[in-house]
Amino acid sequence: MTPDLFDSIDAARPDEALAEQLADGAVVLRGFALPAQAALLDGLRQVVAQAPLRHMVTPGGFTMSVAMTNCGALGWVSNRRGYRYAPLDPDGTLPWPAMPRDFERLAAEAASRAGFPGFVPDACLVNRYEPGARLALHQDRNERDFDAPIVSVSLGLPAVFLFGGQSRADKAMRVPLVHGDVAVWGGPARLRYHGVMPLKDGEHPLLGRCRINLTFRKAG
Ligand code: MD6
Ligand code: FE
Question: In terms of DSSP bridges, do strands 26-29 and 182-185 run parallel, antiparallel, or are they unpaired?
Fold first, then answer.
């Protein structure tokens, strides 16, 4: 067997085994971000140095347990007046940090692998969960059009992702997500309710006592 042939078999098989279908339009690519982890952590450090993680307030007046920041042309923000995408960081009034090339590349590759070629994100929301932090069931519907998928990268401590239906009352599946997993959803799954269960305590060798989630969207 030639080394070339061996390589292509070796690379193709795990790739296929790793795609896990949650629903029509929603897939988890197990370990997809692992080859890029060093670049992602590097980019993350640069982003949070320019736009620190902060706990935003919901329109209902609650402070979120998840700390957030953004990179890219648009950033997701919440305050008493509502949720929206904004080009400036309201904490500093500077533009959000640029989206690192490696972030954009990984998001496009994952989308393509999941059946959504040509994904060009303009927003990356960074979520940091410390033990006990959670995200209530919600829909992602502040983006301008729902044709583009959302690509969600999990780093650090494992979490249980809740994946529900088209209505809030629909029973949610529990999907464990670990360091390096990438979830992609779009098409018929784009508006499904979802959330994250309270983070269990633990220590991740690279990230310590936290989980970081990067969600990439085409928001504008
Ligand atoms: C999280 N993710 O995993 C939160 N939204 O920390 C989301 O809210 C999300 O993972 C839309 C699509 C994928 C996601
Ligand atoms: Fe969401």
Answer: antiparallel
How many Å separate Cα 10 from the centre of its chain? 28
- The pTM of the full predicted model, rounded to 2 decimals, is 0.92
Left (φ > 0), alpha (ψ -120 to 50) or beta: where does 193 sit? beta
32 vs 6, 23, 35, 72, 109, CA distance in Å? 21, 19, 7, 22, 9
pLDDT for 39-92, tens place per residue?
999 999 999 999 999 999 999 999 999 999 999 999 999 999 999 999 999 998
Ligand 1 pocket (Cβ < 6 Å) reads 127, 135, 140, 150, 152, 161, 183, 185, 194, 196, 213, 215
Rounded CA separation 75/106 (Å): 19
- The pLDDT tens digits for 194-220 are 999 999 999 999 999 999 999 999 999
Out of 215, 216, 217, give the residue to mutate to test ligand 1, the one with the largest number of ligand atoms within 8 Å of its CB.
215
Ligand 1 atom showing the smallest separation from residue 177 Cα? 3
The domain limits of the chain are 19-217
185 C-alpha to ligand 1 centroid (Å): 10
Name the residue with the closest Cα to ligand 1, atom 12.
150
What is 19-217's CATH number?
A: 2.60.120.590
